[in-house]
Amino acid sequence: MNRTLGCVMACLVLCLPWSLRAQESAGGGAAEVEATHQALRAIKNDMEQALNAQDLDKLLSHLHPNVVFTTMNNDVRVGRDAIRAYYEQMMKGPDRIVQKLDAKFEVDELTRLYGNTGVAQGSSADHYVLTDGTDITVHSRWTCTLVKEGDRWLIAAFHYSTNVFDNPVLDMVKRAALIYGGIAVVAMLLAGIFVGRFTARRKATS
Question: Do the bridges between strand 112-114 and strand 76-78 make them parallel or antiparallel, or are there none, so unpaired?
Answer without folding.
Answer: unpaired
